[in-house]
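User: Quick one: structure for sequence A, then sequence B.

Assistant: Sequence A:
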Amino acid sequence: METLRYGSEPSQFVELHGTPGGRGTAILLHGGWWRARHDLHQLDPMAADLVAAGWYVANVEYRRIDGDTGGWPRTLDDVRAAIAAVERPAALPTVAIGHSAGGHLALLAGGLSGVVALAPITDVPRARAEELGEGAAGLFLTGDDPAASPIRQLPIGCPQLVVQGDADVRVPAAHSRDYVAAAKAAGDDVDYVELPGVDHFRLIDPADQPWQPAREWLDRRFS
């Protein structure tokens, strides 16, 4: 594992796993409602699984809220700077895989070959109004900037997979359903998998069945 810094702030770094090339580059973006108490190590098992499948993996840390210097738009700026800093073969795909708040950032990152969004936050004002994430959305975004919500930035112009558990109380399935419907109406190429009885966190465990739709989609789209 190699650490790459893309800025001077403590949270501005990427952990690189594997060797450049192979099937392409997977950009991992962890969740946690953009809060500082959650970090990139949430996705260490996913990184190992993807390296074993032939991917070069960049697991991104970024500035967050609650004691860090993140928030809108600084957190997204970090993600874009991190992706730009990772050296990767131009001829191979670059796919962002994000969970929860990381799914939100993946859908907004731009310039990607594809996005896998696992229970993503797609509408920040709606999340704020529904008091999801213990008030995190209001800390992340003050006011109402349409650029902060993937559902208001469609089409994003690359293939997407959205995976959602219907037992998720952190990011309700209705949010993903509404995003997918809007993305398809805008002309985006979107696949949607809703998993019965699955909660918010099982999606990121590579040893558990709910991760398999993402692996299968990657195999099908980028073999």
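Sequence B:
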Amino acid sequence: MKILALCIGNPERLAGKSYKTGIFKHAVNGAVMIDAEGLVGDAICNRKHHGGVDQAVYIEGSLTLDWWSGELGRPYEAGTFGENMVISGLDNRDVSVGDRFISGDLVLEVSACRIPCATFAARMNDPKFAKRYTAAARPGIYCRVVAGGVAEAGTPVEYQPFPGKKVTMPELMETFGRRLSETDRARYLAAPIHYKLRAMLEAQR
């Protein structure tokens, strides 16, 4: 595996909307510093739902994006989904909470899946795109930064699977907002899930 693209965005206004968003991201040349809050210089406009230490870097796998290119009927340009990083040879469906991506000094740990929103649908110019994305069951990957560092397109990535019981990205998307069985809740809580999801699950006890 290697980093195929690193993408950052500036605050931009969506057509017909009163607010600005950082979802319009574009691949950049050269090295990018990544710290606990994500890619330095990347715009995060809605801090309530985006960004933060457990949602610092958003990854898409190249195999998933190749699939989307076929579904959309056009070449996929890095950053279209608002991702910060594209990793070669990666299928989002194979990724679980706690998996790690290591590139040089940089260590990213998977914490959550992407849940599509109205802003995403507006960016794609399709009011039904959130439902389409959910139905595809190939959600993007949010990571916390365990160790910061400098990243650059073309650099190798080591993939370390989580050693515990798996909570995959498709399963996280499917169960989002639902009450879990005691067995599944225990499995989720045994993984290093996003702190907001952890709080929701602990409140179900």
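DSSP finds six helices and 13 strands in the chain. Helices lie at 62-72, 118-123, 129-136, 169-175, 182-189, 195-203.

User: Thanks, that's what I needed.
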